[in-house]
Amino acid sequence: MSRQADAEREFLTAPLVALSACFALGIVVADASRVSLPDTLVVVPVLLFSAGACMLAGLILTRAHWPRLAGVLALVGFVLLGSSAARLFEFRFSGRDISHLESLGIDLRTPVRVSGRIVSPPLARPSGLQFDLDVSAIEDRGRVYPMTGKVRVFLRRGQGVQAADLSEALGLSYGDSIRALAELERPRTYRDPGVFDFRRWMASIHDIYWTGTIKSPRLVEKLRRRGLSRQAK
């Protein structure tokens, strides 16, 4: 039996290996060629239609006794399906999600006022507190942008305040709503070969695309339930 025949027989006995590899290849291709949200609305239907056309053509060719060409079309279809899945994974966020913050024209070179609800227990760090904030709005230059999504916040303790006492001093806990002046930036990551991609891990596992730094406890307002606010001590 020839080597080519052995390869064909191996493919027929374990077709999911090749199909899974093509699906993964489609994800890699989509990840390497990111597009904006409006472009995604156009690209995804085209990819899905093309994948369906490849599958249908492959089925027709199979019945016409063209198995090799049908197999090629099936593999191409799964590459397109992988790309579609990657695009749809990003599309799970609405246009108001904070992952699309840069496209709103907000000037992130200066601090912005962020409002939201604390959705993780505040953790004491050597330099202050860390918690996740479920954002409801961002104010920049007098304009308020309704938002959704999470930001990982680092609140510096300031002088004369111990990190372990900061949460108690401010009265912050899980579920509290706050408004604060924060500097937003992408999670920091290093580009050395083999280094753990912290930014990608935060985005894909925790849906966190931004971190916020509050330089002083004086910049935090704790909001009352009825929308009123008081300056935190």
Key terms:
233 residues; alpha+beta; 2 domains
Describe this structure in words.
By secondary structure, the protein is an alpha+beta fold. The chain has two domains: 3-90; 98-231, OB fold (Dihydrolipoamide Acetyltransferase, E2P) (Beta Barrel). Helices cover 42% and strands 24% of the residues. It contains six helices and nine strands; from the N terminus they run ααααβββββαβαβββ. It has helices at 3-13, 15-32, 37-63, 67-90, 163-170, 198-206, and strands spanning 112-118, 123-125, 128-140, 143-146, 150-156, 177-185, 208-214, 220-223, 229-231. The protein has a five-stranded mixed β-barrel. A hairpin with a 2-residue loop joins strand 2 (123-125) and strand 3. The longest helix has 27 residues, at 37-63.
Quick structural overview:
The protein is α+β, with helices and mostly antiparallel strands and 233 residues long. The protein has helices at residues 3-13, 15-32, 37-63, 67-90, 163-170, 198-206, and strands at 112-118, 123-125, 128-140, 143-146, 150-156, 177-185, 208-214, 220-223, 229-231.
